[in-house]
Amino acid sequence: SYLINQSKYAHLNAFVSRVEPSVLLARTGSSRLTSEGEDGRLVLNDKPIAIKDNICTKDFKTTASSGILRDFTSPYDATVVKLLQDAGAVVAGKTNMDEFGMGSHSTHSYHGPVKMQRYEDEEASAGGSSGGSALAVASAQCWAALGTDTGGSVRLPAAYTGVVGFKPSYGLLSRWGVIAYANSLDTVGILGTSATSVEAIFDQLNLYDPQDPTSLPPSTRSRLGSKARASDSVRIGIPLDYNITTLHPIVRNAWVRTLKALHERGHTLHPVRLPATQRALSAYYVLAPAEASSNLAKYDGVRYGSRAEGIDGTPDSVLFAKTRGQGFGPEVQRRILLGAFSLSAQAIDNYFIQAQKVRRLVQQDFNKVFATQNPLLDETTHAEETEEKVDVLLCPTAPSLAPSLSDVKAQDPIQAYMNDVFTVPASLAGLPAISVPVPIAGKDRTKENEEFSVGIQIIGQYGDDKLVLDFAKELE
Ligand code: GLN
Prior knowledge:
With 476 residues, the chain is α/β, with parallel strands linked by helices. It has helices spanning 2-8, 21-28, 79-86, 131-138, 155-161, 195-205, 218-221, 249-264, 277-295, 316-327, 330-342, 352-369, 405-410, 413-418, 424-429, 465-472, and strands at residues 15-18, 35-36, 42-43, 48-52, 90-95, 116-118, 122-124, 144-149, 164-167, 187-192, 235-239, 268-272, 392-396, 433-439, 453-460. Helix 9 (277-295) packs across helix 11 and helix 9 crosses helix 12 (352-369).
């Protein structure tokens, strides 16, 4: 049936390359549910899993949806891809995305936009930048998918397409073979139809990788919260700073309804303040482009990247400019300019340095509200014990539902950046966060939105990935 859906939904443009139908058929015909391997972990027998096109695979091109990588095939598989295959999974293909992960609607792609079908004939945003992965899962073209999440790129598409999207704590999943966007924020994330399937994949991938210098070493891993839950009753923090005026009423209702249902089940609710939230988005859009401008410098048509046509023998400056001017799309060029500016001598103090300070404040906000201490910090830095502490935070994933593609086209870049207000703080702090689809309430249900859901986000302390995944199951 995955195969049937792959041809039935080809027009959604979720995939940029696919496994041969015969391979998929031979492998997945006998597909069983996940079962336990010898070491007790779930194995992914013949499950078709789609891979975002910025994660290297030797059997498929890896373009990161960029013209500059249009002809690139990696000589090796990324660690995460290798681990999935070792566990028995089949790579279903590579998924469409915003170029190099820069975007929120999967429309900035060399391969054309990802299109979510809605209300008979309306095309809507699948979210970005892992929109292809999310839509591939939502339309059952694969069992699950890998994406990457730098500032929300797994969680936002999960919310818009109605699937589960998990961004693990920074440094847990290997980034070896993952094309860098902003190294200090980049994580590999997982999309699936349930928290259980996402967790099965997480368990396979959550390993130290000596090839990735930012992979968390075993000595630190052993200090992380390993238990799913301390007690049946979870202390849920409600970040009041996320109740912004532009929050769509349908989203606010879903948030309130979810909180009520959890309270009725015996969990306790605690309003908390995260005052640096307001400035987190601006800080992110200074830091991420700064790192990107540096990462993308190597694509010049000499060291990396497809050279522009007909310019051999021209001076280097012309060769670089033509290659980069033609190879990068407009949004990527905008980010390079932004990043190069904020790192320049006249701007670094007012932009980059300030943004780093805001990032620190965002991290401190989170450490103040969580009951568990951040295992990466010294005991002494723990905040005052007077305030009420929580186990998880619960808030919307995005301020609105998926916009139509025509609305997206009419947006200016700043409006597109606004979609990330609720996802960026956990990225700046490196925290685990998951988006779970919650059905739209009866009274909000019109003929138009009846199939749709709202993405609700659960954020945990650094290393509390199991708690976040476990708690997500309560929302299903
Ligand atoms: N929309 C955000 C950006 O464009 C997030 C992207 C991501 O997480 N890769 O930077």
